Structure formats: structure tokens, C-alpha cells
């Protein structure tokens, strides 16, 4: 069931179009991540949904209730929407119980039990209820901020870069914990993030924005392997792009000839391969290549390769396991796992 519907929403700041006729449908109980470069409009869209900004035109509805119809908007506090900011925005003068209880009426029956229930929900010890925010780690503060937002039993949760201030290792564990909490509560969630990896792992649906427009939406794996254009392909991860000749079901490039979905296209175009598709061997099979650079990245090496095929030279990066370090300057053989994707927006 569709729960949140954004229809043709536009917002300008002077001559700048922050949002340009954005439309997005969010299913109940799903997790949506909105990504895009700085200035793409993703935070403005989140603020419009939250009620912090009024759109110039377009509508926003939640469970059939109109939250915004152009400049006519429902107040933010009446939208049944939870909001967690980048820094958590906890009240420093209140302990955890005071922060959580801010959204719970003081005369509510079993209020103390509700506070303990919220702590359990976000996987924190109820003994922390008496602590002040400065006595908590960054990850604990974000979980308390989430619990405070959940206290009002929202229909929709908005997460605005909630993990960006955390250390890398902590960020992943907190993100996983938050995902578990929201899934358990069954709350529809929208995450805005600059971290593509975070978006790909967190979301059921991914929305990519650029220059105020929504350029592609879909399941994360779909967008990663079948991007709408070159910019989206490169934004969502490393990619090797090759000019290619297109025939029926076949593309030919500097790496060789590959089977591919070409539809009715013929002539020339651009194909995409992800670095993890390249497999390296010291004895073959595959196309001969020279190792020009090796960069250690923990679990993998980023290996820069140079090849020649039918007189055409190509340079690209392959990702291989860190247990398989190739030697700088050595000769290896490159094969490709899975077919290339023919980018749809590059037509000669």
C-alpha cells in the first residue's frame, strides 16, 4: 500500500530551483534512501515532507491526508512524522528519561514503563535513563534521538544524515541497529545521506537526485547495475566505462567482445563494467594486461590495469581480494564475470 505520495513538488530559492517537479511514491513499511551530490535538493525535499518548508507547487500526502498543497501546508507538529537530525539534537540539560519523555504526556498511564520499552526497542540498557547526553557515546546519542522520535508513534520517520558524525566502524553498527529497530516497529522511513554505500545497504528503494530533479528510482541493486546515465553510474560506485560498437546482442570494446542486452540499438555507445566484475589470473584465460598501480583498501586491492586490444589501449580499475595482491608492473590476464551494461543515454 502506498503511504507517502509526493506529486510534482517544486521549490525555488531566488533563481535556484532546489526542487523541480519531484514525484515519489513510498510504500508502507519500506525504507527509502535519497542520495545525490551537494545541492541536488535532497535535504530540501526532506524538509518539505517534514513541514519545515512549504513547496511553491505540488502536493504531499501521508495516509491520504494532505500535508502540503503548494504554499498551504499542515504544521510540522501535526504531521505524525518523526525526525532525527545529524547530531541527534538532544536537550543537553535533560537526562535520557527527560529527552524521551519530552514527546510523552506526563499524565500518560505507565509512563515509566513506556520509557523502558523505548530503551529496549533501541537496544539500550534502561540504566542509562539517568544519564545526560554528554555521558553517552555518539552511537548511543543517536539511538536515544531515534527513541525520542519513536515515542510519539509516528507514521513516517525521516533520517537526515543521522550517521555521518560517527566513526566508520560505529556508523555501520548503529545503522544496522537503527534498521532493525525501524523494521521491528514497521515504520516507513526516508533516509537522506551522502554515503552511497550506506544508502545501498539501508534502503529497499533508492532515489537519486541531481539539480533538483529525481533522475532515477528503484531497488538499490537495480540502480547499481542498471543506472539511468553515466552520472548515476559513477555516483553510485566505481565504474569502468568503454566506448563500444553495438551489434545485435553483441558489444565490442577495448576489452574484447561481449554478449549484452542491446535491444534495437546499433552503431556506437558506452558500456559499463563494475570493478568487482574483473577477474585477474597469472596464467589466463583472458586479455593480457599490465598492472600499473596497486592500492590497499583493507578487504580489497584497487588495481589499475592497462590493456591493448586490436590496437586500442584501455585503462581501468579492478577490485580484487586483499589475499590476492598482484605485483606492480606484472602481467596478468583479465576476464569479465557477467556481461556489461549498455548505458541508455549515450547514443552515437
Automatic annotation (TrEMBL):
<dbReference type="InterPro" id="IPR015853">
    <property type="entry name" value="ABC_transpr_FbpC"/>
</dbReference>
<keyword id="KW-0813">Transport</keyword>
<keyword id="KW-0406">Ion transport</keyword>
<dbReference type="Pfam" id="PF08402">
    <property type="entry name" value="TOBE_2"/>
</dbReference>
<dbReference type="InterPro" id="IPR003439">
    <property type="entry name" value="ABC_transporter-like_ATP-bd"/>
</dbReference>
<dbReference type="GO" id="GO:0015697">
    <property type="term" value="P:quaternary ammonium group transport"/>
</dbReference>
<comment type="similarity">
    <text>Belongs to the ABC transporter superfamily.</text>
</comment>
<dbReference type="InterPro" id="IPR013611">
    <property type="entry name" value="Transp-assoc_OB_typ2"/>
</dbReference>
<dbReference type="Pfam" id="PF00005">
    <property type="entry name" value="ABC_tran"/>
</dbReference>
<keyword id="KW-0410">Iron transport</keyword>
<dbReference type="GO" id="GO:0015408">
    <property type="term" value="F:ABC-type ferric iron transporter activity"/>
</dbReference>
<dbReference type="InterPro" id="IPR027417">
    <property type="entry name" value="P-loop_NTPase"/>
</dbReference>
<keyword id="KW-1003">Cell membrane</keyword>
<dbReference type="InterPro" id="IPR017871">
    <property type="entry name" value="ABC_transporter-like_CS"/>
</dbReference>
<dbReference type="GO" id="GO:0016887">
    <property type="term" value="F:ATP hydrolysis activity"/>
</dbReference>
<dbReference type="InterPro" id="IPR050093">
    <property type="entry name" value="ABC_SmlMolc_Importer"/>
</dbReference>
<dbReference type="InterPro" id="IPR008995">
    <property type="entry name" value="Mo/tungstate-bd_C_term_dom"/>
</dbReference>
<dbReference type="GO" id="GO:0043190">
    <property type="term" value="C:ATP-binding cassette (ABC) transporter complex"/>
</dbReference>
<feature type="domain" description="ABC transporter">
    <location>
        <begin position="4"/>
        <end position="236"/>
    </location>
</feature>
<keyword id="KW-0997">Cell inner membrane</keyword>
<keyword id="KW-1278">Translocase</keyword>
<keyword id="KW-0067">ATP-binding</keyword>
<keyword id="KW-0547">Nucleotide-binding</keyword>
<dbReference type="GO" id="GO:0005524">
    <property type="term" value="F:ATP binding"/>
</dbReference>
<keyword id="KW-0408">Iron</keyword>
<protein>
    <submittedName>
        <fullName>ABC transporter ATP-binding protein</fullName>
    </submittedName>
</protein>
<dbReference type="InterPro" id="IPR003593">
    <property type="entry name" value="AAA+_ATPase"/>
</dbReference>
<keyword id="KW-0472">Membrane</keyword>
Amino acid at each position: 500500500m502506498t503511504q507517502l505520495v509526493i506529486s510534482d513538488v517544486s521549490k525555488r530559492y531566488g533563481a535556484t530551483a532546489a526542487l523541480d517537479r519531484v514525484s515519489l511514491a513510498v510504500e508502507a513499511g519500506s525504507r527509502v534512501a535519497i542520495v545525490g551530490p551537494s545541492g541536488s535538493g535532497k535535504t530540501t525535499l526532506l524538509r518539505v515532507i517534514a513541514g519545515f518548508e512549504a513547496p511553491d507547487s505540488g502536493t504531499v500526502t501521508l495516509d491520504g491526508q494532505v500535508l502540503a498543497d503548494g504554499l498551504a501546508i499542515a504544521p510540522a507538529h501535526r504531521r505524525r512524522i518523526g525526525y532525527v537530525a545529524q547530531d541527534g539534537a538532544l536537550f543537553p540539560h535533560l537526562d535520557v528519561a527527560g529527552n524521551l519523555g519530552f514527546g510523552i504526556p506526563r499524565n500518560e498511564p505507565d509512563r515509566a514503563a513506556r520509557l523502558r520499552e523505548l530503551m529496549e526497542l533501541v537496544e539500550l540498557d534502561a540504566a542509562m535513563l539517568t544519564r545526560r547526553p554528554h555521558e553517552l557515546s555518539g552511537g548511543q546519542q543517536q539511538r536515544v534521538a531515534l527513541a525520542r522520535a519513536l515515542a510519539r508513534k509516528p507514521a513516517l520517520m525521516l533520517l537526515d544524515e543521522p550517521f555521518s558524525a560517527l566513526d566508520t566502524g560505529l556508523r555501520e553498527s548503529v545503522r544496522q541497529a537503527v534498521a532493525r529497530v525501524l523494521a521491528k516497529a514497521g515504520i516507513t522511513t526516508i533516509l537522506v545521506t551522502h554515503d552511497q554505500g550506506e544508502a545501498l545497504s539501508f534502503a529497499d528503494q533508492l532515489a537519486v537526485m541531481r539539480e533538483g530533479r529525481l533522475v532515477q528510482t528503484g531497488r538499490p541493486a537495480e540502480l547499481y547495475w542498471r543506472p539511468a546515465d553515466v552520472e548515476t553510474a559513477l555516483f553510485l560506485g566505481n565504474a569502468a566505462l568503454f566506448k563500444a560498437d553495438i551489434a545485435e546482442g553483441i558489444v565490442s570494446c577495448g576489452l574484447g567482445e561481449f554478449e549484452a542486452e542491446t535491444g534495437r540499438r546499433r552503431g556506437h555507445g558506452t558500456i559499463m563494467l563494475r570493478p568487482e566484475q574483473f577477474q585477474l589470473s597469472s596464467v589466463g584465460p583472458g586479455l593480457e594486461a599490465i598492472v600499473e598501480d596497486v592500492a590497499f583498501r583493507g578487504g580489497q586491492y584497487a588495481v589499475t590495469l592497462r590493456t591493448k586490444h586490436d590496437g586500442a589501449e584501455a585503462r581501468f580499475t579492478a577490485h580484487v581480494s586483499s589475499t590476492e595482491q598482484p605485483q606492480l608492473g606484472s602481467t596478468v590476464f583479465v576476464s569479465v564475470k557477467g556481461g556489461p551494461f549498455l548505458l541508455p543515454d549515450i547514443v552515437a
